[in-house]
Design brief:
9 helices; alpha/beta; about 190 residues; binds adenosine monophosphate; Rossmann fold; 5 strands
Length: about 190
């Protein structure tokens, strides 16, 4: 089963992805984590993206798509993908479709974790203390939220007409959200 977790920064995509990884024995494909790993390992890609990421801007599509392609074509992960933080633009959604098509896969479920701006700001401020992410500073949070509204939210139109799309109130407690997600998964 391939699943997309969609929503603004701080919606709880990562938390729910980890739950689904355990439940389904799948793999979390967090482009944010993959990119942070490149920075941590000081790779050529890491050096290129560090400023962009810390500033809360999108990393160039060519870089993200290239890293994502590796995951989608990994035979071990076939039909076991939990996308967290990808796609983030219409272009990326189209790219994902192409990659899935050419690897004989499809998206089975899309969950949109909908959360308002105030809740996001509160959550990310908490996360900043726990995870010490440089892009969790207030002005960067606001910039990431703006980018989400402008570039990422339109991706909803791409998925919302399909019967496998489910909007979930992401401002609820973690367990409530998990239960709601589980109710759409028949395993
Ligand atoms: P996240 O961990 O999903 O909140 O992502 C953290 C940061 O990584 C974002 O603010 C972007 O700078 C970068 N990033 C993650 N996923 C993508 C993506 N799909 N496209 C472009 N940039 C991304």
């Amino acid at each position: 089963m391939n699943i997309i977790l969609f929503g603004p920064p701080g919606a709880g995509k990562g938390t729910q992805a980890k739950h689904l990884v355990k439940k389904l024995n799948n793999f979390q494909i967090s482009t944010g984590d993959i990119l942070r790993e490149e920075i941590k390992n000081n790779t050529e890609i890491g050096k290129k993206i560090i400023d962009v990421m810390n500033d809360g801007r999108f990393v160039n599509d060519d870089i993200v798509n290239q890293l994502l392609e590796k995951q989608v074509f990994d035979p071990q992960k076939k039909n076991k993908l939990i996308f967290d933080g990808y796609p983030r633009s219409i272009n990326q959604a189209k790219n994902l479709d192409l990659l899935l098509d050419s690897s004989n896969q499809k998206i089975d479920l899309v969950f949109f974790l909908n959360v308002n701006k105030e809740t996001i700001i509160k959550r990310i401020q908490k996360r900043k203390i726990l995870e010490k992410r440089l892009d969790d500073e207030m002005d960067t949070i606001l910039k990431r939220y703006e980018t989400y509204m402008e570039t990422t939210k339109p991706v909803l139109d791409f998925y919302s007409k399909n019967s496998n799309f489910h909007e979930i109130d992401g401002s609820n407690e973690i367990e409530q959200i998990t239960n709601k997600i589980d109710s759409f998964i028949n395993v």
